[in-house]
Amino acid sequence: METLRRLIQFLKDSRNEFKKVSWPTRQDVIDSTIGVVISVLVLVAMFAIFDEIVGRLMDLLLRK
Description:
By secondary structure, the chain is mainly alpha-helical. Helices cover 89% and strands 0% of the residues.
């Protein structure tokens, strides 16, 4: 029975804490998502360029 009371209290406390949360607006979420997608694309491009450069250098080194 004590466990049930503790669970109910936990759920009540959680509900009260959720009321205090400052949730982002829809536009904030969209802006953040766009920022993350652009960052990922830039990093992918950088890694691809770096990989190509290192691959060509390794080809030059291994051919000699």
